[in-house]
Design goal:
Helix content of chain B: over 70%
Structural class of chain B: mainly alpha
Distance between the termini of chain A: 38 Å
Number of helices of chain B: 13
Strand content of chain A: 25-35%
Number of domains of chain A: 2
CATH topology of the largest domain in chain B: MetI-like fold
Radius of gyration of chain B: 23 Å
Shape of chain A: globular
Strand order of the largest sheet of chain A: 6-7-8-3-9-10
Number of strands of chain A: 18
InterPro entries (chain A): AAA+_ATPase, ABC_transporter-like_ATP-bd, ABC_transporter-like_CS, ABC_transpr_MalK-like, ABC_transpr_MalK/UgpC-like, Mo/tungstate-bd_C_term_dom, NA-bd_OB-fold, P-loop_NTPase
Membrane topology (chain A): Peripheral membrane protein
Order of helices and strands of chain A: EEEHEEEHHHEHEHEEHHEHEEEEEEE
Protein name (chain A): Sugar ABC transporter ATP-binding protein
Number of helices of chain A: 9
Distance between the termini of chain B: 23 Å
CATH topology of the largest domain in chain A: Rossmann fold
Radius of gyration of chain A: 24 Å
CATH superfamily of the largest domain in chain B: MetI-like
CATH architecture of the largest domain in chain B: Orthogonal Bundle
Strand content of chain B: under 5%
Structural class of chain A: alpha+beta
Oligomer: heterodimer
Largest sheet of chain B: none
Subcellular location (chain A): Cell inner membrane
GO molecular function (chain A): ABC-type maltose transporter activity; ATP binding; ATP hydrolysis activity
Order of helices and strands of chain B: HHHHHHHHHHHHH
Helix content of chain A: 25-40%
Chain lengths: 332, 276
């Protein structure tokens, strides 16, 4: 149905190479998230799949067919934009019905599909309103409604939640995940928020400077990061990196350990340091520790741990939770 | 906290505004009043303001002598014609420049505008000769061509600024929704751009209606619009103030009425994008 295959895809804007060479297979029905820092080319990659930008080289196949030079309208994909991109002069009904109208569907089919989409997305009471009369969350639902009515081969989401406030974002995140379970259609989702990526994805593509750093399930990325970039990008708070003599002792150029994989102790441990700031959240405690010759280390302890600013703390990495990287940043 | 403005200040500012407004409006009012005077009263010293014998005689004379309606229809044909042709050329041009710009788009826009800086009289002779050889002198087509040419840069600029305000995302969304280029233009772009297109059209009709240099130089009788109609009263038989005023009133009345009814649209159009 909706598999997407990229083969040696590249993109230049003028003289600037945004995507040097990417190959990627997205299986039918998967929820794949493109994640990376801003400017890494994740949105460009999505727009190349959509057909809103032309590739500079390579082949894009959708559902086994070569779509590299096909116009966006013929690719049978739906897209949800960051800005929602609703048609301001049409009612909610008009917006959701638009893709079907363009297909030339008859009125009965359109009404049925619109009402169905509206009930899935709790928009039934708003069908006759204009987009400007809706809240941000409702607008985003209309945009999703417009995407689902035409039963596309795949959905493309371009940072759809970044204009919403934090609480609404968590809700919409769940709604989109549930929608995916219900529709079982391929979804490609772009975000810079690694929490969104970890919680929603079947598979994550970590992008950096137009290259794929790693492609795998959220837990693979968490437990077996391919390189230092992925290790640092996935996980919150960020992984601690230790370089220099301390790392050499362990046989690596850089050693990484996640804050939640360090056990703090008042009496003994591998590294000793002074607590700079202690954040007590109740469920967790974050300790920002200064260790001589190593630098700043973040520790995340579960529950409320009785450490305070200025105290000495000993930290030991848990077994098998130490990551080693060579001088090029590749995992050893 | 809102700024507090004293009543005294308000009165002074309002008085100045009224003074400026009335000063600007006075010539039009005076022309209007003079058109109802006899030639004698029109040049009377001291001038009579409201208390004179009102007469419609000038309007009758003007219509019988120079056929107002023919000039009126010439004005309508040339102003509307040049505006429509201008829009047909400018809409795709502005579209391309707004939605698929190149490195040179800004240069092209400025270059177009620079043609407005050329003194028209500098090209009068070559254009007159070209028109003579192509037998375009004193024809509707000739006048429409020239009015289209001189107003095209303004139409393109205005439309370009309106189109720039339309978010590209929305156009891209329609492409993703399966709209062809034709459907995208009809169902999405045009409804969103209509206020801009309408005010461009209005302004351009006004500009073409009032254009005097080319209309006076390139026409004599058959295609002569209202500008030529007014001009014909200014000298040959000496100055007839009352008849000239009647002719002027008749010439500016249609555009004044149109402007009055569409002023909201015009102001909105001209300030579109300035305050989002």
């Amino acid at each position: 149905m909706g598999s997407i295959s990229l083969q040696n895809v590249s993109k230049n804007f003028g003289g600037v190479t945004v995507i040097p060479d990417i190959s990627l297979e997205i299986e039918d029905g998967q929820f794949v998230v493109f994640v990376g820092p801003s400017g890494c080319g994740k949105s460009t990659l999505l727009r190349l799949i959509a057909g809103l930008e032309d590739v500079s080289g390579g082949v894009i196949q959708i559902d086994g067919q070569d779509m590299t030079r096909t116009a966006p309208a013929q690719r049978k994909l739906s897209m949800v934009f960051q800005s929602y991109a609703l048609y301001p002069h049409m009612s909610v009904r008009g917006n959701i019905a638009f893709p079907l109208k363009m297909e030339g569907a008859d009125k009965e089919t359109i009404d049925k599909a619109v009402n169905n989409a509206a009930s899935i997305l709790n928009l039934t009471d708003y069908l006759d309103r204009k987009p400007r009369q809706l809240s941000g969350g409702q607008r985003q639902r209309v945009a999703i409604g417009r995407a689902i009515v035409r039963q596309p081969k795949a959905f493309l989401f371009d940072e759809p939640l970044s204009n919403l406030d934090a609480a609404l974002r968590v809700n919409m995140r769940l709604e989109i995940s549930e929608l995916h379970k219900k529709l079982k259609t391929t979804m490609v989702y772009v975000t810079h928020d690694q929490v969104e990526a970890m919680t929603m994805a079947d598979k994550i593509v970590v992008l950096n400077a137009g290259n794929i750093e790693q492609y795998g399930t959220p837990l693979e990325l968490y437990t077996k990061p391919a390189n230092r970039f992925v290790a640092g990008f996935i996980g919150s708070p960020r992984m601690n990196f230790i370089e220099g003599d301390e790392a050499k002792k362990m046989g690596a150029h850089t050693v990484g350990v996640r804050p939640e994989h360090l056990s703090p102790s008042k009496t003994e441990g591998l590294w000793a340091g002074t607590v700079g700031v202690a954040e007590h959240l109740g469920s967790d405690t974050f300790l920002y520790v200064h260790v001589d010759d190593v630098g700043q280390i973040t520790v995340r302890a579960s529950g409320d741990v009785a450490f305070h600013s200025g105290e000495t703390v000993y930290m030991t990495p848990m077994d098998g939770r130490l990551y080693k990287f060579d001088a090029q940043g590749q995992a050893i | 906290m809102a700024r507090t403005i004293s009543t005294r200040r308000k009165v002074i500012v309002s008085a100045i505004a009224w003074l400026i407004g009335l000063t600007l409006f006075f010539p039009i009012l005076w022309t209007f009043l003079t058109s109802f005077k006899t030639e004698g009263t029109a040049i009377a010293m001291p001038p009579r303001f409201l208390f004179f014998d009102w007469t419609l005689e000038n309007y009758q004379t003007v219509q019988t002598r120079s056929n107002y309606f023919r000039h009126f229809s010439n004005s309508v044909i040339t102003a509307v014609g040049s505006t429509i042709i201008g829009l047909i050329i400018a809409i795709p041009a502005a579209w391309a420049m707004a939605f698929s710009p190149t490195k040179r788009t800004k240069d092209v826009l400025l270059w177009m505008l620079s043609t407005k800086m050329l003194p028209a009289v500098g090209v009068l002779v070559p254009i007159y000769l070209i028109f003579r050889d192509l037998r375009l002198l004193d024809t509707h087509i000739g006048l429409i061509i020239v009015l289209t040419m001189i107003n095209l840069p303004i139409i393109v600029w205005m439309l370009y600024t309106y189109f720039k305000e339309i978010p590209v995302d929305i156009l891209e969304a329609s492409r993703m929704d399966g709209a062809s280029l034709r459907q995208e233009i009809i169902y999405v772009l045009t409804p969103m751009a209509i206020p801009g297109i309408a005010s461009t059209m209005l302004l351009n009709i006004i500009l073409a209606w009032n254009e005097a240099f080319w209309t006076l130089n390139l026409t004599t009788t058959r295609a002569a619009p209202l500008t030529a109609f007014i001009a014909s009263y200014s000298s040959p038989e000496g100055l007839f103030w009352a008849k000239l005023s009647a002719a002027s009133t008749l010439a500016i009345a249609p555009i004044l009425i149109m402007g009055w009814f569409s002023q909201k649209q015009l102001v909105r159009g001209l300030t579109f994008g300035a305050v989002k």
